[in-house]
Amino acid sequence: MAVSKHTVAAFKSYQNQAQVLVRNYLLADTFIPYTSVLGGIFACKVVYDLSQLVSTFYFRSYNALSKVQKIEWNNRSMSTLHAILIAFISTYFVFWSDLFSDNKHVGLITFRTSPVSIVSLGASVGYFLVDLGMIFWLYPSLGGSEYIIHHSLSAISVAYAMFTGEGQLYTFMVLISELTTPEINMRWYLDVAGLKRSNAYLVNGVLIFFAWLVARILLFFYMFYHVYMHYHQVSAMHPFGRFLVFVVPAALAAMNLVWFVKILKGLKKTLTKWQ
Known about the structure:
Elements: H1 5-26, H2 32-58, H3 60-63, H4 67-96, H5 115-137, H6 145-164, H7 168-175, H8 181-192, H9 199-229, H10 231-234, H11 239-274
């Protein structure tokens, strides 16, 4: 069917208006933080709905779950994807990118930022807001007070680094710890699927131990060492920014140690059953 010139002209007009809207507002420097947060929230909604749709047709154990368990299943799918993406991006910025390299003599590392780093942090803020909202909504089914403390500290720190551009390097260092989330979620999936006695459950338990040791224990020691070696640059930050750099990672490290002890006890218990 032929399309009239008037229709084509109207379509091009709307297309041009949309491009102007995206370029001048959604992707403008001043709007990037807000756009990225909204994008993160929208992405969480899409992943949640896709998890619900796919799981209904391809996982028999999903249909046998209670309503709250189905919500948690979909929530963990959302958190798994976020963890994989933000851990990869964070690892890139911390160890591979030149943005925070000591060899790049362009200002203090505590004030370096880029559009990509802002978008990455904004999307993560969107995820933490969604997850916090769901935790409050179904409290305490998706997590107790320790989860609220952990997510609140993370959301505040990531949001501050995104909006101010301060301390983004250390924010990405902490976000690498999300590497442990997929293994933790897989343990829950295997449990509700009745595979607690499977080889997969045992292997996953070992992976949790080593991933937690590297990403939530040793990495935090590396971060504290890095802060110590760059203290003169950290001290140039705003007082609230310095507070977040010193206090939040210390609080998260303490929580990580407590959880690590529980993981170690759980792994010993699992290995004992397999002997």
